[in-house]
Design a protein that fits this description.
The complex is a heterodimer of chains A (427) and B (521). With 427 residues, chain A is α/β, with parallel strands linked by helices. In chain A, 33% of the residues lie in helices and 18% in strands. Chain A is built from 14 helices and 17 strands. In chain A, helix 7 packs parallel to helix 8 and helix 8 packs parallel to helix 9. Chain A is globular, with a radius of gyration of 22 Å. Chain B is of the alpha/beta class and 521 residues long. Chain B contains 25 helices and 8 strands. Chain B is elongated, with a radius of gyration of 33 Å. Chain B starts with 14 loop residues before the first strand and ends with a helix. Classes of the chains: A alpha/beta (427), B alpha/beta (521). Chains A and B meet through strand 2, helix 2 and helix 3 of A and strand 2 and helix 4 of B.
Chain lengths: 427, 521
């Protein structure tokens, strides 16, 4: 049985679809034939070429990585796929889908499944159900809409805690290395913290699970062999266990793998020794989450960190000649215009270049976050209550302290100070 | 059984830009355009651009409106497609009010997509982008009012400027309201020329993008774009095809749109000199009022094109590219350009120019053996053997690679020969022979040196080695003949001269020698 996995984002250049890669290699290991299609700003793809792909590959199941800003495109592609072959089943998964209300099915006429649990196991269940000719029987981790448009939720599925049980996307060669500019790595999944604006802790139930050091190093070794030397470690907190990270870096050094690394972690999870080793092993850039430089605002975000701690971490990294990026957000609850300006000033004062990921963005209230469930408690006023049920509040809101005008002004202030016109790399 | 071994998927490239030249007069042509576009939509990239180019917006409104409706229909059926529609037309001062009205009307028909974008917190999938082609009489203030008004209605205006209107680019307020400035070469306002200049800009932008991400594949076709002309009802696969009036349908005598696409993908592009076209476009952009960073990038592009030409052996074009690159590159990046320019001049025999270029990078390249070698070569070719020897000596001291060392020693020996210092020539050439015994030039140069000091046996010994390596070397047989003649072995001399003439009957001095010897005998 053939399965097509699609990642679409027409607003940014193609990146390595690591999450789909995991699912593809897992499904392949279970005997399915899987293809990944990445559609980015630089992808050359017409509707006729897409139609040809569907008609020749003949997938029984198409899975989409769903994000807020591309939901419209997913609905369009789903409709197009069904117009080619109405028997093809369509599933959406990823951050937008995990906590999307099942009521969204009403506005997603061509979507059959909304995946809620870890993608590998959930899609395996769905794929086997389709293969057995009973597409809506005997699987878990997803909601579905049957042939009579009745909507059902199935029980949750627990993912593996030992991540090595998932076959490696890189070692299984599910990616086209000739087009890969940068390898995206996930050496761990989840986050134990309680930041009220973030999806990850709730999606992973405040737990964190890991790949073994051996597996991580084996992947890096293989990717380097394939000619890719830029690595983007997407773990939310890669130094959550410092000794584990040190072991990975030691191996990189021992084997002279010489990668160029971007990584992110919490500012309270770095030490001078760790940064020194990072630098030696090839870490060019480290990103910390500051969110807000107003202690008053920061203390209410559940992040449990201080601006002083972030400033220390920046200085330490800069002393080791590692470029620093800071994730910041404006439009936070309790934040006034003056508070938002403090954040901009903090970034400038600490000599962090305002470009790439350091370009600030307005808070996005996504499904699954504490904020999305309790927005009224924070005096958040959504601007568009007629949005489709598959979209969360996103950035369409005002707060008690800032209206659209102030939010726009803050955005302009950041753009005016930006070295690259405010292009963010990750969202 | 799954046959997918990896994720490489061959997908036909999609068209990213379509330029439509409108014809206000003929309704029949409009129907043809609508049909053609309707067919092509499904071959458009998921995000693409359509340029509607008109002599007069007011007159073209029925066409523009029909095409826009056509586009709306396509986008409504394909929720994953996005289109930027650029409406390109003159903006005479007398027509400003009409232009305002036209855009007000056109904007209404995009409301649906604006609302859809707002609901999804994203950019609309259909964006109208006016591109004004001002005439020479227009004042900046007249355009400022118009642009300001359009911008407030979320229509992002651009300007197309050429020689006669470049002064508008000096107006800061006007530029601040302009989304993009397109620059045209020359002074023509004819829409066909405007289309070519827009296409040129596209090629330039594509090349600059490539150089920015270090994608150096410049020899392939330019971005997948088409020109559709309502004036002659033809589709052209690129600017060169348009300029040469070569439509794939005409070239291959096929008529169906499907066959046109087959031609486009399989044949038409491969017949074109895409590198030459790209080069011409980039070269012609030099001198346009670009930003300093764009100028620098254009300089880098020209340098890269020069390298490509040098690698393919077209040194005349390489020199042209390097010269243009020098005018745009920042001073700290000119060393390698000067060196490559010097190399280019050397290869086309303009040694004085080459030496001038090399002089500019003396400090940066001093101590690099290849630099001294090429300088020496220029002096050698201009007959300054003494200075050439100095450079070759520096090259030899700078640890050249093995093959290059042999080459430098042969040139050194030849310099000494030309200066009449045959013993020194022999010393250098023997050094070369000690490490490499299979290079003809070592032996025949040695043969010459020994001949000049009248050591005919040694000369013959070396020349025999030369003809052993290259049995078709007429000149070496002739030299052997002269050695035997000097030794008094006239039969051998005649034999060698005859061999030389058999290989190259045009050697008149050998023929004369042979005649003289035959007479003497």
């Amino acid at each position: 049985m053939n399965i097509l996995l699609i990642e679409i984002n027409p607003f940014v250049q193609e990146t390595t679809p690591i999450s789909l890669g995991y699912i593809a290699s897992f499904l392949k290991s279970k005997g399915f034939c899987v293809k990944i299609l990445t559609i980015g700003q630089n992808t050359s793809l017409s509707s006729s070429a897409f139609q040809e792909l569907i008609s020749t590959f003949k997938p029984s199941l198409v899975g989409f990585s769903a994000y807020q800003r591309i939901m419209l495109y997913i609905t369009g592609l789903a409709k197009f796929i069904k117009s080619i072959d109405n028997n093809i089943k369509i599933a959406i998964g990823g951050p937008q889908a995990t906590f999307m209300p099942s009521a969204a099915f009403a506005e997603l006429p061509d979507v059959d499944y909304i995946c809620r649990s870890p993608g590998e196991l959930t899609l395996l269940g769905i794929a086997r159900a389709i293969e057995n000719g009973t597409p809506f029987l005997n699987f878990s981790g997803a909601s579905y809409k049957d042939d009579n448009n009745a909507v059902f939720d199935t029980p949750e599925l627990e993912g593996y805690t030992d991540l090595d049980r998932y076959p490696s996307a890189y070692l299984s060669d599910v990616f086209d290395y000739s087009r890969m500019r940068e390898a995206i790595m996930l050496t761990s999944r989840g986050c134990p913290h309680h930041c009220i604006y973030c999806y990850t802790p709730n999606a992973f139930k405040h737990k964190i699970s890991f790949h073994s050091v051996e597996r991580v190093v084996e992947e890096i070794r293989w990717i380097r062999k394939k000619g890719v030397n830029r690595f983007w470690f997407a773990d939310p907190n890669i130094s959550y266990r410092p000794s584990r990270l040190i072991e990975i870096l030691d191996n990189i050094l021992k084997e002279s793998l010489e990668p160029e690394i971007w990584l992110q972690t919490r500012a309270d999870l770095v030490t001078p020794e760790l940064l020194k080793k990072m630098k030696r092993a090839g870490v060019r850039t480290i990103a910390f989450g500051l969110e807000s430089a107003s202690e008053r605002v920061l203390s209410r975000l559940g992040k449990n960190i201080t601006t002083e701690k972030v400033a220390d971490a920046i200085r330490l990294a800069q002393n080791h000649d590692i470029e620093v990026e800071l994730f910041t957000i404006y439009g936070l609850p309790y934040e006034t215009f003056e508070d938002a300006m403090k954040t901009l000033e903090f970034v400038k004062k600490n000599k962090v270049k305002i470009m790439g990921n350091t370009n600030s963005q307005q808070l996005q209230i996504y499904f699954g976050t504490h904020m999305a469930r309790h927005y009224e408690d924070y005096n958040i006023r959504p601007l568009n209550n007629n949005r489709p049920a598959y979209l969360s509040i996103g950035s369409h809101y005002e707060t008690d302290h800032m209206g659209r005008r102030e939010l726009h002004k803050i955005q302009q202030m950041w753009q005016a100070n930006s070295l690259d016109g405010g292009k963010r790399i990750v969202s | 059984m799954c046959r997918e071994r990896n994720n490489k998927t061959m997908i036909k490239p999609a068209f990213k830009k379509i330029y439509v030249i409108l014809d206000e007069q003929d309704q029949g042509n409009l129907e043809w355009i609508l049909q053609t576009l309707s067919f092509l939509y499904s071959h458009l990239n998921l995000t693409s651009n359509i340029y509607l180019v008109s002599e007069n917006l007011s007159d073209s409104m029925p066409q523009v409106e029909r095409i826009q409706k056509n586009i709306n229909k396509f986008l409504s059926e394909h929720l994953f497609a996005r289109l930027y529609v650029h409406i390109v037309h003159p903006a005479p001062p007398s027509d400003m009010d009409n232009i305002r009205l036209c855009y007000k009307y056109l904007k209404q028909s995009t409301d649906k997509f604006d609302q859809e974008g707002y609901r999804h917190q994203e950019l609309p999938r259909l964006i109208l982008l006016p591109v004004f082609v001002p005439d020479d009489q227009v004042r900046p203030s007249q355009l400022i009012d118009l642009l300001d008004e359009l911008k407030k209605s979320f229509l992002l205006p651009s300007l197309y400027l050429n020689k006669g209107t470049l002064n508008l680019a000096e107006d800061e307020k006007l530029l601040s309201l302009t989304d993009k400035v397109y620059y045209g070469i020359g002074n023509s306002k004819k829409m066909t020329d405007v289309v070519c200049n827009l296409f040129r800009q596209d090629i330039l932008d594509d090349s600059l993008d490539k150089i920015e991400i270090n994608d150096l594949s410049m020899t392939g076709p330019c971005p997948d774009s088409l020109i559709i002309s309502a004036q002659d009802c033809n589709v052209y696969s690129c600017m060169e095809a348009f300029l040469k009036n070569e439509s794939p349908a005409k070239i291959y005598e096929t008529h169906s749109q499907k066959e046109f696409l087959a031609d486009y993908y399989q044949q038409d592009k491969s017949k074109r000199d895409c590198l030459g076209c790209r080069e011409q476009v980039i070269g012609s952009s030099v001198g346009l009022p670009m930003s300093p960073s764009t100028n620098q990038q254009t300089g880098a592009l020209l340098y890269h094109l020069g390298m490509l030409r040098q690698e393919s052996g077209d040194d005349f074009q390489a020199v042209k590219n390097f010269k243009q690159s020098l005018n745009l590159s920042p001073i700290e990046e000119t060393d390698s350009v000067y060196f490559r320019l010097g190399l280019g001049y050397t290869k086309i025999g303009q040694y004085d120019q080459a030496l001038k270029a090399f002089e500019s990078v003396e400090i940066a390249y001093q101590g690099q053996y290849f630099f001294h070698f090429y300088k020496g070569l220029c002096y050698f070719e201009t007959g300054d053997y003494v200075t050439a020897l100095e450079e070759f000596s520096k090259a030899l001291q700078s640890k050249p690679q093995h093959d290059d060392r042999i080459r430098i020693l042969i040139y050194t020996g030849t310099c000494f020969n030309n200066l009449g210092k045959y013993e020194q020539a022999i010393d250098e050439l023997e050094r070369a022979r000690e490490t490499e015994n299979n290079v003809k030039e070592i032996y025949n140069t040695l043969g010459f040196s020994y001949f000049m000091i009248k050591d005919y046996d040694k000369s013959i010994e070396n020349l025999k080695m030369a003809v052993e390596i290259d049995p078709f070397s007429a000149i070496d047989y002739a030299s052997l003949g002269s050695n035997y003649r000097e030794k008094g072995d006239l039969n051998m001399a005649i034999g060698m001269y005859q061999k030389a003439l058999a290989l190259d009957p045009g050697m008149t001095s050998v023929r004369e020698n042979l005649e003289r010897l035959n007479k003497n005998l």
